[in-house]
Amino acid sequence: MKSIILTYIFALLLVCCINAKAIISVDSYKEDPIDTAALLDEGNVSADEISNYLNFQNLKRNILYYGDKHLDVYYNKNNVDTKKKVVIFVYGGSWVTGDKIKYTKFGSLLQRNGYVAVLPDYHLYPDGTVEDMVSDIYNAIRWTYNNIENFGGDPEQITISAHSAGSHITALTIVKSTLQLKNNGITLQPLPYIQKAVLMNGPYEGVNNELIVHALGTSVENVFRDLLQMTRKNQSKSDPRQAVLFPQFLLKYLNNKSISPTILLQEVADHSIQNAFNVGHFTFYYTSFDEIIPKSNALNLISEINRTSTKDQCSYVYQEGFKHSTLVFGIRDGEAEYENIFLDLIKNK
């Protein structure tokens, strides 16, 4: 009888161990080395940005999450036992530039305000395609869901926020995974539950003539000349390679309907998305002086989400007086006004 009881207890413990989610030490996540000298030589990031990145203490740097791509986790090293809300931030950069190091102040801002923040790098053109970018963000979300508890994050309270091209890739990832479309030849499965998606200034209709004309204020024929001028006006914030690579990207993807989450949803029947995209709420943020993205991009995607979903789940925040990147540049400069606007977007439904 005693042996039967012991066998039963052992079996019960074994089942519990199998079903329990193992908590892994943060130290087990390897930090891959970062070639800061190469970054400086290429002009990707500034010396001040690298200094801010390396000196911030509550940060696990450069964790390999998918293929050769890395992410950073900003978390309270002294308290990983209390579950905290999680924010994944996907930066923009016209699909051709960007580095998570440039957005250290986003991660540190969120961590100081009680969140666990995840900032992934992802493929950029021409080293990767839009499908590669979708694969990266798809896997960054899944990595976060599966691992963030080890950093004190709550996998049931994940918000994803993004700006510009990052918003486009994030929206496209959510739509393609919801519809279980193929991406790089692989059928995407629905993502884990995302509590909120806060998408700022995104080109959700992809690259079309309206986008180009709006961005340039001129004819499509002058795209390459004017893009070069437009980029040079903001050299202090922009990667100089953008002037060369962005026109190439536009030419490759002009009127490519497969990269537009709005157009993909137009093929879907009314109220047929039963899981409501597995997103609790969408917040779309647009600015009145956005010189890059037409206002219709956010409004049209909101319309398609509301039409195809089984519930009304979108809100629209319209910011007067800001340009396309005013908010992002303000946070990168450490200005409290812009930090508070961003935190309000994350907090509010």
Jot down its keywords.
8-stranded mixed sheet; 13 helices; Rossmann fold; two-stranded antiparallel sheet; 20% strand; 41% helix; 349 residues; alpha/beta
Give me the CATH architecture, please.
3-Layer(aba) Sandwich
Query: According to CATH, what is the topology?
Result: Rossmann fold
What is the general shape? globular
Supply the CATH class: Alpha Beta
Q: Over all CA atoms, what is the radius of gyration?
A: 21 Å
Placed side by side, the strands forming the largest sheet appear as 1-2-4-3-5-8-9-10
**Percent range of helical residues:** 40-55%
Terminal residue distance: 58 Å
How would you sum up this structure in a few lines?
The chain has 13 helices and 10 strands.
Question: Describe it for me?
Answer:
The structure is a single chain. By secondary structure, the chain is of the alpha/beta class. The chain has one domain (32-347): 3-Layer(aba) Sandwich (Rossmann fold), CATH 3.40.50. The protein has 13 helices and 10 strands. Strand 9 (279-289), helix 11 and strand 10 (314-323) form a beta-alpha-beta unit. The chain is globular and about 50 Å long. It starts with a helix and ends with a helix. Residues 5-20 and 218-236 have low confidence and may be disordered.
List the helices and strands and how they pair.
Layout lengths: L1 H18 L16 H7 L4 H9 L3 E8 L2 E6 L9 E7 L13 H9 L3 E5 L9 H18 L5 E11 L1 H14 L3 E2 L2 E2 L6 E7 L8 H8 L6 H10 L9 H12 L7 H5 L13 E11 L6 H13 L5 E10 L2 H7 L3 H12 L2
Parallel strand pairs: 3-4, 3-5, 5-8, 8-9, 9-10
Antiparallel strand pairs: 1-2, 2-4, 6-7
Helix pairs in contact: 5-6, 8-9, 12-13
